[in-house]
């Protein structure tokens, strides 16, 4: 299974980094490493393929269902292969008061996607909170955070994407 999931270099990286992660947990508490282990898998694959979640579950000595439960609870994890860019638009109260819903509608039109949809390039989704209430509205593209947004700023940000 490892060969189908990972290239030899990825397998070595996964094994080495997972061993380092697990060294911080008692042997009887491996399952506590679920979040960092899933994060490691996603760093290597760009998402959480089912066979990858099964591998993480085996290594942490939990059921595959438990890994899937954790992966689907957190918005930061992708259980479906996303486009090149994951665009999270915060529409929580502070962002909504400063126009986030208008920005989301603008992006839906610009990208020709509804929130929750994806194509080969973009995965657009509405997110509950990106922890920038004082600099609302905000969005995140992959791991890049952008604040104090307007339609014009959003257009400038997207014009710079490769």
What is the average of the pLDDT values?
A: 94
Shape: elongated
Low-confidence stretches: none
Order of helices and strands: HHHHHEHHEEEH
CATH superfamily of the largest domain: Glutaredoxin
Strand content: 5-15%
Structural class: alpha+beta
Strands side by side in the biggest sheet: 2-1-3-4
The DSSP helix count reads 8
End-to-end CA span = 34 Å
Architecture (CATH level 2) name of the largest domain: 3-Layer(aba) Sandwich
The name of the CATH topology of the largest domain is Glutaredoxin
Biggest sheet features:
4 strands, mixed
Any idea what the radius of gyration is? Answer: 18 Å
The CATH class of the largest domain, by name, is Alpha Beta
Helix content range: 40-55%
Would you give an account of this structure?
48% of the residues lie in helices and 11% in strands. With 162 residues, the chain is α+β, with helices and mostly antiparallel strands. The protein folds into two domains: 2-73, NADH-quinone oxidoreductase subunit E (Arc Repressor Mutant, subunit A), CATH 1.10.10.1590; 85-159, 3-Layer(aba) Sandwich (Glutaredoxin), CATH 3.40.30.10. The protein has a four-stranded mixed β-sheet, covered by helices on one side. A hairpin with a 2-residue loop joins β3 and β4 (144-146). 23% of the residues are buried.
């Amino acid at each position: 299974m490892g060969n189908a999931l990972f290239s030899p270099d990825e397998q070595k990286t996964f094994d080495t980094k997972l061993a380092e992660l697990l060294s911080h947990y008692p042997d009887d508490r491996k399952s506590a490493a679920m979040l960092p282990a899933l994060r490691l898998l996603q760093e290597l694959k760009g998402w959480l393929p089912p066979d990858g979640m099964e591998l993480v579950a085996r290594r942490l000595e939990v059921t595959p269902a438990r890994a899937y439960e954790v992966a689907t609870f957190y918005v930061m994890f992708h259980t479906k292969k996303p486009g090149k860019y994951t665009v999270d638009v915060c529409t929580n109260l502070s962002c909504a008061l400063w126009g986030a819903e208008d920005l989301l509608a603008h992006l839906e039109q610009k990208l020709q996607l509804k929130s929750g949809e994806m194509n080969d390039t973009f995965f657009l989704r509405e997110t509950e909170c990106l922890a920038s209430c004082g600099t609302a509205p905000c969005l995140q593209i992959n791991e890049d955070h952008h604040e104090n947004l307007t339609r014009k700023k959003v257009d400038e940000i997207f014009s710079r994407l490769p």
